[in-house]
């Protein structure tokens, strides 16, 4: 029996067209503890009615369903009834187009379906659902910000004074960063300084994200590999999950990937990248800190500024989650705050002439 102080179980709706898969998902969640499966649905129409009737804390959602597909239904959920969603599908494996689309729309995370009962693919499902429930308020606010009524235009912002072009640009982002980076990096000119990016993503998603960015950028975009040289006109994205991305200076600047414990709660960590840029490039480093929950990047940004470098933070009005930029600003690490759409001009001195994307996130 639960004590009066025991937390209420997370109430979950399981949406999948396969009765067997619904059984496996529900069993895995119940065995994980602290979760109550309050309903099941086999298609989007049934799921919509179940959500109205049951008001679940979290929904698990398949991609391939009869009638409306899962990605389309996810967007409708986020637009009309924001609720934490965990995608559970064969189509949302690491780096897949469907997974990146789902994360951009607002899914909390993606889990690949297991091949049989007890498969390790479900080992983290219950914990993922519990985390999604705890992040409900933030996820709902994100969805309302993204799909709600247009916000008033921010007050005119004084543009940052231009400095000499840096030798290295480092960028950190988290929640909302996929959308922000896609918009920002379209403005990078072909001769832009080498750029290193840490975007908090699950393992396996960064390569697909880099490939999609490459379709909309004038510069080369790739997932970083250990020892890759830092060259103008190239953007390197930190691999998700296992290692930290660092900048190395010297006669032949390069990046390195280092296996180490998470820093500021993340691996790769924006703090680690920024600290390395401060050490290797000093006053020749520029850091941009974008939308995201938490404070990763704040201390590293301060190190860049102490070394004579330059930090630009995304302002609250244009941030989906004003967490990381706020943390950096509050400790005095940010030289200038500004809307996302002014950053490229502040760095390069001209309005961006972005290439039209071949596809949208």
TrEMBL record:
Is Phosphoprotein tagged as a keyword?
yes
Q: Write out the PTM section of this UniProt entry.
A: Phosphorylated by CheA. Phosphorylation of the N-terminal regulatory domain activates the methylesterase activity.
- Predominant location category: cytoplasm
Q: Which GO terms describe its molecular function?
A: phosphorelay response regulator activity; protein-glutamate methylesterase activity; protein-glutamine glutaminase activity
GO CC, one annotated term: cytoplasm
Domain CheB-type methylesterase as annotated: residue spans: 161-347
Q: Does the keyword Transferase apply?
A: no
- A family per Pfam: Response_reg
Ranges for domain Response regulatory come to 11-128
Where is this gene product found? Cytoplasm
EC annotation?
A: 3.1.1.61, 3.5.1.44
> Which keywords annotate this record?
Chemotaxis, Cytoplasm, Hydrolase, Phosphoprotein
Catalysed transformations (reactions)? [protein]-L-glutamate 5-O-methyl ester + H2O = L-glutamyl-[protein] + methanol + H(+); L-glutaminyl-[protein] + H2O = L-glutamyl-[protein] + NH4(+)
How does the entry describe the domains? Answer: Contains a C-terminal catalytic domain, and an N-terminal region which modulates catalytic activity.
HAMAP family associated with the record: CheB_chemtxs
The role this protein plays is: Involved in chemotaxis. Part of a chemotaxis signal transduction system that modulates chemotaxis in response to various stimuli. Catalyzes the demethylation of specific methylglutamate residues introduced into the chemoreceptors (methyl-accepting chemotaxis proteins or MCP) by CheR. Also mediates the irreversible deamidation of specific glutamine residues to glutamic acid.
What protein name is recorded for this chain?
A: Protein-glutamate methylesterase/protein-glutamine glutaminase
């Amino acid at each position: 029996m639960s004590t009066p102080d025991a937390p209420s179980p997370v109430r979950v709706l399981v949406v999948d067209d396969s009765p067997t898969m619904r059984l496996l998902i529900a069993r895995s969640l119940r065995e994980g503890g602290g979760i109550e499966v309050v309903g099941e649905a086999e298609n989007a129409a049934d799921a919509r009615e179940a959500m109205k009737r049951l008001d679940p804390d979290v929904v698990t959602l398949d991609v391939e369903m009869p009638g409306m597909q899962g990605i389309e239904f996810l967007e409708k959920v986020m637009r009309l009834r924001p609720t934490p969603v965990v995608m559970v599908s064969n189509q949302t494996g690491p780096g897949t187009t469907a997974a990146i689309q789902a994360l951009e729309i607002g899914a909390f995370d993606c889990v690949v379906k297991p091949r049989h009962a007890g498969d390790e693919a479900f080992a983290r499902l219950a914990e993922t659902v519990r985390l999604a429930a705890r992040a409900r308020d933030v996820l709902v606010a994100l969805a309302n910000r993204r799909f709600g009524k247009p916000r008033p235009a921010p007050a005119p912002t004084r543009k940052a004074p231009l400095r000499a072009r840096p030798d290295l640009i480092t960028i950190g982002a988290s929640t909302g960063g996929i959308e922000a980076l896609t918009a920002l990096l379209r403005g990078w000119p072909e001769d832009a300084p080498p750029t290193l990016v840490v975007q908090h993503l699950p393992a396996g998603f960064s390569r697909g994200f880099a490939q999609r960015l490459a379709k909309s950028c004038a510069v080369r975009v790739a997932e970083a590999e250990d020892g890759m040289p830092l060259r103008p006109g190239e953007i390197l994205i930190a691999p998700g999950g296992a290692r930290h991305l660092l900048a190395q200076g010297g006669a032949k600047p390069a990046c390195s990937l280092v296996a180490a414990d998470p820093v500021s709660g993340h691996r790769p960590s924006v703090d680690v990248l920024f600290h390395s840029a401060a050490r290797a490039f000093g006053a020749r480093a520029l850091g941009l800190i974008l939308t995201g929950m938490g404070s990763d990047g704040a201390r590293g940004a301060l190190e860049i500024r102490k070394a004579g470098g330059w930090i630009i933070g995304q302002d609250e009005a244009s941030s989906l989650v004003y967490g990381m930029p706020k943390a950096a600003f509050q400790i005095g690490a940010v030289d200038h705050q500004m809307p996302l759409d002014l950053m490229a001009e502040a760095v390069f001195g001209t309005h961006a002439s972005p290439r039209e994307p071949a596809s949208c996130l």
